[in-house]
Amino acid sequence: MADYFDLLIVSDAIALDSFGLPQSVEGRASIAQDLKIMIRESGLLIELIAERNAQRIKRNMIRIEQMVENDTRIIPGTAVMSRTQNAEFYLTAQTIKYGEIEVTA
After folding, report:
1. What is the pLDDT of residues 36-89, one digit of tens each?
2. How many structural domains is the chain composed of?
3. Owning domain of residue 22
4. Pairing assessment for the beta strands 13-14 and 9-10 based on DSSP bridges
């Protein structure tokens, strides 16, 4: 059994199976889901999307990396946030137990 277990959230709602029961997520996927929710709730992602100033974008990306690295399940110094040409944001980090995770925003 995995150390981390949670309900699966899809489109801001608990995902249900074909019987109407909540679906679960565990391990690496649970950590990634927690981080994605934490980033969204911080408000920094909205600032990133709306921002045009490259220095402010970089500063907020660093703030998100630091916030992720404060999670006790993440190896400090491994969080890296990048931005694609399509203005999508990717975060990768190494978990202590499950290896690399990736979060897309």
Report:
1. 999 999 999 888 887 888 899 899 999 999 999 999 999 999 999 998 877 789
2. 1
3. 5-104
4. antiparallel
